[in-house]
Amino acid sequence: MVFNMKRNKIIETLSQDKLIEHKQRVAFHEAGHAAGIHLNNKARHLPPVFFKIIFKELNNVTEADVMAYQTSHDDCIARVEGGRLIELLPPSIDSLVRELTEYKEVMMQLVKDYMLAFEADIINLLIGPLAEAKYVADADDEMFNHQIVNLKALKNYGGSSDLALANEYLQSYFTDKQQRAEKLDELFTVAFNFVNNDANWAAISRLADYILGSRKNIIGCEEIVSMLDESIAHFQNRRTAARSRHHA
């Protein structure tokens, strides 16, 4: 009886530890998406877009939720609602370009703007699982690089649905599979470098910590944007101060 009680206690402790770790991974995943939507779009001089983070009460997350997330990332625990610059995809980017080239330079600029927004949406999708992957690597004191964390590996970090949506974008981008693969690799590198940037990572980490400590089921756009901007400004001020001390 005593042995069984100890065994059950150990299992319960392990289960709780697993759920805590999972909540942390989800928080970094969604914080990554949010940081991409705001900071990446801002860096590309794209217009602001409304979004919010909606998540299940993290204290009520079960092991079944964890399993569903790990196998499909079906938004059973958390998701970013909104945030996409392009909601409706054209049948083909090529057909869109052909139609618009009949018009003058103004329309061609619209094509360029559309393509910039198109790529930004894909990058922001990839930033989520990459942020989760970096959190796991840091927690395990492991390297975070392109060799260890590649496109295929994103499925291990809740990235299945993100990759599926990115591929949906790319199917309207290129008809050729090789071209789609090359473009996805290119945008993956951009997303990886975004997450690996010290200032961006500080902002993602702060937002993830806020999500973990918050009792809200919805975190609004203004709140997230303010927090991310403050974090970037704080990081830059610290770096400037450190450089000044070094030169002094």
User: Structural class, from helix and strand content?
Assistant: mainly alpha
Largest sheet: 3 strands, antiparallel
Low-confidence stretches: 1-14, 70-75
Number of domains: 1
The largest beta-sheet arranges its strands as: 2-1-3
Assembly type: single chain
Supply Rg: 20 Å
Tally of DSSP β-strands: 3
Number of discrete helical segments: 8
Helix content: 55-70%
How many angstroms does the end-to-end distance come to?
68 Å
Shape category: globular
Q: What proportion of the residues form beta strands (DSSP E)?
A: under 5%
The secondary-structure element order is HEHEHHHHHEH
Mean pLDDT: 81
Q: Quick recap of the structure?
A:
It contains 8 helices and 3 strands; from the N terminus they run αβαβαααααβα. With 248 residues, the chain is mainly alpha-helical. The chain is globular.
What does the model show?
This protein is mainly alpha-helical. It has one domain (2-247). Helices cover 69% and strands 5% of the residues. The chain is built from eight helices and three strands. A three-stranded antiparallel beta sheet has the order 2-1-3. The longest helix has 42 residues, at 2-43. It is globular and about 50 Å long. It starts with a helix and ends with a helix. Mean pLDDT is 81; it is low at 1-14 and 70-75.
